Amino acid sequence: MGGPVIGVLALQGDVREHVAALTGVGADVRTVRRPAELDAVDGLVIPGGESTTMSKLVDIFALRAPIDKRIADGMPVYGSCAGMIMLATEVLDGRPDQRGFAGIAMTVRRNAFGRQVDSFEAPVEITGVDGGPFHAVFIRAPWVERVDAGVEVLGRVTGGPAVDRIVAVRQGNLLATSFHPELTGDLRLHRYFADLVEAAR
Ligand code: GLN
What would the pLDDT profile of 104-118 be if each residue is shown by its tens digit? Predict the structure, then answer.
């Protein structure tokens, strides 16, 4: 295959759905559990799941320093939901011992929507992705409370009690969404990410 090699961090979470979505956009997809597997990929997806658990497993699998280094070297990473939390520099309502990769200069609030309702769906328009709004699925999702200069806001909730909350961002080669495009069969965000990986290669 000529497509970029994209890894899915496969410690925990909805790994299979991201593998399917990335395969659907022509990427050569690998699951990543070991440092040697990380070395072989051009980009990485951090799936939805549970960021506190993922944080522990990243240490147990000795992936923290290797992922930090690849991010510092410019590897594209896309985090959805728990993956967004893992990319944030600051997490509110997290566990004191949870740690991410601090790649995107933003503050996220964990389980933010969950105070009103555990899961909900809403249309979200994403800057740079044509074809109309995403049918965004939020499951105990974080939202972004604050971004530093240098972080591009790509999408916000457009209605309901969480109106205007930031739910998609990009900083350089790092991309994050609060919602789960891998669950709805809409491949446009995975295509956007695969293009980003291809461009960075
Ligand atoms: N609430 C989860 C966390 O804190 C994220 C939920 C999800 O990824 N669907 O990591």
Answer: 999 999 999 875 567
**pLDDT of 19-45, one tens digit each?**
999 999 999 999 999 999 999 999 999
Q: 1.10.760.10, 3.40.640.10, 3.10.129.10, 3.40.50.880: which CATH number matches 5-200?
A: 3.40.50.880
Give, in order, the Cα–Cα distances in Å from 118 to each of 46, 108, 137: 21, 17, 11
CA distance 194 to 2: 12
The CA distance from 125 to 156, in Å, is 7
Amino acid of residue 116? Q
190 is catalytic: no
* Active-site option among 17, 18, 81, 190: 81
Query: What does pTM read for this prediction?
Result: 0.96
Best mutation site among 140, 167, 177, 183 for ligand 1 pocket (most ligand atoms within 8 Å of CB)? 140
Annotated binding-site residues read: 49-51, 110, 139-140
Confidence of residue 129 (pLDDT cuts 50, 70, 90): very high
Place of tokens 């991010």: 71
Active site residue 121: no
DSSP-derived secondary structure letter, 4: P
Residue ranges covered by each domain of the chain: 5-200
Model pLDDT, residue 161: 76
Give residue 111's identity as a one-letter amino acid code.
Answer: N
145 touches 117 (CB < 8 A):
no
